[in-house]
Design goal:
The chain has 24 helices and 18 strands. Helix 9 packs antiparallel against helix 11 and helix 18 packs antiparallel against helix 21. Helices cover about 40% and strands about 20% of the residues. Bound molecules: zinc ion.
C-alpha cells in the first residue's frame, strides 16, 4: 500500500497536484467525509478524466469514459444494493467474454472485487471510470432497475393484502400525476417490450395469476407473473389506455394505444377476448417510422433481382404467401416503397393498416359499412390506380376482382395462406377463378418464413462442423449434402446481449416461383403442385429449405430454425 501511495503522489504531481494542495484535499476529505480523489477534484480543479488516467497509468487498467446505461441489465444491478455500490465507488456493468466488467472510480475499490466475484459467480474485470461519470451512471442504472415492471409489482404486492382483488378505482387508473403502481406497471411492461424488441405482448389471466408474455423474434417468452389480485386492474388500465369500454367484459373489443415513450412514438393495436378467468389481452406493437427496403429483408441476390424485375411490370398479380407473422407485410411494403413515385397511383385495402406509407393511398377494411377487400377492389378500379395492394385473397369475389384488375392493366399485390408457392395456383383456382385466367395473370408467387438470426456476440462459441449423420437426419438431398459437407455452421449459444437466447433479430427465407410457359400449361391442366414445384426447381428456383440451408451455411441462422419454420404445420 505504501508503494501505491507514493506512486499516486507522483502521478498527482504530474497532474499539477503538489504537496500543499494534496494536504488541503486531505483536510477537505476528512472534513466532508468524501474520498480523497473527490476532494482533489474540488480543491485543485483537476478534471476527473485526468484523475482516472492517472489511476489507469498506475494500475494498467483501461479507462472507460462513456458507459451505455441501456446495456446494463436491471437484474445485474438489483443484485448489488445501491448503498454498497455508492460507498465503494463500484458499478457492475455487463458480461463480456464470460467476465463481469466492473466500473470503479478508485483503485481502493479493487478490494471489493473478490466479493463481487462471489456475488455474481463470474470472474471480474475492472475498468476505471471517471468519478463523476460513474456517479451519474450509477444513479441512472439504479433508477432504471427500480422502474422495471417486476420491481413495481413487487412493491405494490407488499402494499396490497392477499386474497382481495384490488377495488377498481377508475380515477386511479386514469393518467394521474401520482402514477399509481398499476399505471407505472403497465408503462413498464410496454417499455420493457419495446426494449426487448417484442412484436406482441400477451396478457393471459388464469385462476391463480396473470401471465405476461412477449413475442420476441416470433417466439413467445414468459416475462412476468403478477399476482392474481392485480389482474382486473391491469386489464382495466390497458382498456382505458386503448379507449375501450372497461365495463364491458363479455364481448371482444379492439382498440389502439398511441403513446410517447422514451422519446419514441409507439403505436399498439389492442384486442381483448373474454376467457374463463377474465379477459385475455393481446397488444401488437406497430413499428412507427420503420424503414422498408428490399435490400434489408434477407433475399438472396438471385431472387431479389427477379423479384425487382416483376414488381415493375405494368400488370399482373404478384402473391406473397406464408403463415401469419412470416413477414409478408414487410416484403409487400418494401416492394411498394421501391416502386413508389409521385407519378404512380398506388392504392391499398388492408385489414388492418399495419404501417403508414407516405404517398400511398391506404384504406382500412370496415365490415360495418361493408367495405371489404372485394368491394374496395371494385371501387379502386374507378380511381385509375397503377398498383393495388389487397391485404389478402380469401374468397371468390376478391380473387375474381383481382384477376379483373390485372386483366384491365393493373399490377396487383396480395397475400395467400398457403404453405408453399406452387400450391397457390390451386388455391386461387379453388376460389372459382378459371384456370387459364390464373395461369395468365399470376406473374410470380413468393413463399416466405422468418427465421431467427444468430446473435453476433455469442455465435462463435457455437461453431461446429456437423457430422454426416446430422446432415442426413435433416433430410438433405445429394446436391444439398455436397453443399453442406465439411462446412462449419453455428448453434445458438446465448449471452447477455441476446438475453441468453442465442438469437437476435430475424431475417426472411424465400422461395420465389416465377410463372413460365411450362408452368402455365401445368396450371391449366390442374397438375398437382408437386409437379409445378419440380418444374420450377429445374428452372432454377430455390425452395424455402434451399434458401434456409444457404443462410445456415452463411452463419446467419441455425438448422433448428430452418427446420422449425419449414416443417411446422400451418
Ligand atoms: Zn448472444
Amino acid at each position: 500500500m505504501a508503494i501505491r501511495r507514493v506512486a499516486i503522489a507522483e502521478k498527482l504531481a504530474e497532474l499539477g497536484v503538489h504537496e500543499d494542495s494534496l494536504a488541503k484535499a486531505r483536510a477537505l476529505a476528512s472534513k466532508k467525509e468524501i474520498p480523497l480523489r473527490q476532494a482533489i477534484v474540488e480543491v485543485k480543479g483537476v478534471d476527473t478524466v485526468a484523475m482516472a488516467q492517472a489511476m489507469s497509468a498506475l494500475s494498467g487498467l483501461p479507462v472507460v469514459t462513456q458507459v451505455d446505461v441501456g446495456a446494463i441489465l436491471p437484474e445485474t444491478i438489483r443484485k448489488l444494493p445501491n448503498h454498497i455500490a455508492r460507498e465503494n465507488g463500484i458499478l457492475p456493468l455487463y458480461l463480456a467474454n464470460g467476465e463481469l466488467v466492473v466500473g470503479m472510480a478508485d483503485l481502493d475499490a479493487l478490494n471489493t472485487l473478490d466479493d463481487l466475484r462471489v456475488l455474481y459467480g463470474y470472474p471480474v474485470r475492472p475498468v476505471i471510470i471517471p468519478a463523476d461519470v460513474l456517479s451519474d451512471v450509477t444513479q441512472q442504472a439504479y433508477d432504471k432497475a427500480a422502474q422495471s415492471a417486476e420491481a413495481i409489482i413487487e412493491e405494490a404486492d407488499d402494499d396490497v393484502e392477499d386474497g382481495d382483488d384490488l377495488a377498481l378505482d377508475d380515477a386511479e387508473l386514469l393518467d394521474d400525476p401520482n402514477q399509481a403502481p398499476i399505471i407505472r406497471f403497465v408503462n413498464a411492461v410496454l417499455s420493457q417490450a419495446i426494449k426487448e424488441r417484442a412484436s406482441d405482448i400477451h396478457i393471459e389471466p388464469y385462476e391463480k395469476d396473470l401471465v405476461v408474455r412477449y413475442r420476441i423474434d416470433g417466439v413467445l417468452k414468459e416475462s412476468l407473473r403478477p399476482p392474481s389480485k392485480f389482474k382486473n386492474t391491469i386489464v382495466a388500465r390497458i382498456k382505458i389506455m386503448a379507449g375501450l369500454n372497461i365495463a364491458e367484459k363479455r364481448l371482444p373489443q379492439d382498440g389502439r394505444i398511441r403513446k410517447k415513450m422514451g422519446g419514441r412514438e409507439i403505436d399498439l393495436r389492442v384486442s381483448t377476448v373474454p376467457v374463463r378467468h377474465g379477459e385475455r389481452v393481446v397488444m401488437r406493437i406497430l413499428e412507427k417510422g420503420k424503414v422498408f427496403s428490399l435490400d434489408k429483408i434477407g433475399m438472396s441476390g438471385k431472387t431479389l433481382s427477379i423479384f425487382r424485375e416483376l414488381i415493375r411490370r405494368p400488370h399482373g398479380i404478384l402473391l406473397v404467401t406464408g403463415p401469419t407473422g412470416s413477414g409478408k407485410s414487410t416484403t409487400l411494403y418494401s416492394a411498394l416503397t421501391e416502386i413508389n413515385s409521385p407519378d404512380k397511383n398506388i392504392l391499398t385495402i388492408e385489414d388492418p393498416v399495419e404501417y403508414e406509407a407516405p404517398g400511398i393511398g391506404q384504406v382500412q377494411v370496415n365490415h360495418k359499412i361493408d367495405l371489404t377487400f372485394a368491394s374496395a377492389l371494385r371501387a379502386f378500379l374507378r380511381q385509375d390506380p397503377d398498383v393495388i395492394l389487397v391485404g389478402e385473397i380469401r374468397d371468390s369475389e376478391t380473387a375474381n376482382n383481382a384477376v379483373q384488375a390485372s386483366l384491365t392493366g393493373h399490377l396487383v399485390f396480395s397475400t395467400l395462406h398457403t404453405n408453399d408457392s406452387a400450391s397457390s395456383f390451386a388455391r386461387i383456382c379453388d376460389m372459382d377463378v378459371e384456370n387459364f385466367l390464373v395461369a395468365d395473370t399470376v406473374l410470380g408467387i413468393l413463399a416466405q418464413r422468418l427465421v431467427r438470426a444468430l446473435c453476433p456476440h455469442c455465435k462463435e462459441e457455437g461453431r461446429y462442423v456437423p457430422p454426416e449423420t446430422e446432415l442426413l437426419e435433416l433430410g438433405l438431398d445429394e446436391e444439398q449434402m455436397e453443399l453442406a459437407r465439411g462446412k462449419p455452421v453455428y448453434r445458438a449459444m446465448g449471452c447477455v446481449e441476446c438475453n441468453d437466447l442465442g438469437y437476435s433479430g430475424r431475417t426472411g427465407i424465400y422461395e420465389f416461383l416465377t410463372n413460365s410457359d411450362d408452368i402455365q400449361r401445368l396450371v391449366i391442366q390442374n397438375a398437382p403442385s408437386s409437379q409445378i414445384t419440380k418444374v420450377a426447381v429445374s428452372a432454377g428456383m430455390d425452395t424455402l429449405f434451399d434458401d434456409g440451408l444457404r443462410k445456415v451455411l452463411e452463419g446467419i441462422t441455425t438448422f433448428e430454425e430452418v427446420k422449425r419454420v419449414t416443417t411446422a404445420e400451418h
